[in-house]
Amino acid sequence: MFRSRSKDEKAPAAKAPVAESTSSRDPQAPKGRPTPKRAVAQSQRRSVMNTPTTRKEAAKRAREERRANMEKQRQALASGDERYLPPRDKGPVRKYARDFVDSRFCVAEFFLPTAILILVLSLVRVAQLQNIALLLWLVVIVLIVLDSIVTGFRLKKRLNERFPDEHKKGAVAYALMRSLQMRRLRLPKPQVKRGERP
Questions:
Q1: 58 CB contacts (<8 Å, ≥6 apart)?
Q2: Which ranges in 6-126 belong to alpha helices (H)?
Q3: Taking the CB of residue 35, how many other CB atoms lie within 10 A of it?
Q4: Pairing with 158, which of 57, 62, 110, 130 sits 20 to 30 Å away (CA)?
Q5: Rounded to whole angstroms, how far apart are CA atoms 195 and 108?
Q6: pTM for the full predicted model
Q7: Could you tell me the sign of the dihedral formed by the alpha carbons of 129, 135, 139, 141, in that order?
């Protein structure tokens, strides 16, 4: 147990470190992957440097990115640039629905001015004017409902003809909601003139 080893037993132990040193990689040998270009290495270093170190810094950076995205979306809504529109306005189906509504007169777009007129008439303390105001409410609501039904059916038919394989869910409701807004207040801005076919 505590006896000394013979020379034969010591020999393999002495050879082992030599074998290890020969198996280590030669400094001149290839490393198995190409050396990155200078621009790539610098961009990697820059991205490591730009990563936020604190939660406060990360939140600030997220706010700035969100603000920049919102600004791009706002400009896209004004110009109609398809790349930066919000998801609800993107796609050829939604664009066609917008153009379909923008190319025609809708009764619903005159709802707001008519509602203000009816409100003023109903505030006047004359019984005949108040009766006219009530009758106007009824007429306007019936006209809006009928016009919306006709617009919905026509748009659905056109969408089925033009985009048979596209996803069309919600496009008619999207167009009807757009028709409720006054033309100059619509976002994205109208890209077609009235009477022009989309």
A1: 52
A2: 7-23, 38-50, 55-79, 92-102, 111-123
A3: 9
A4: 110
A5: 17
A6: 0.65
A7: positive
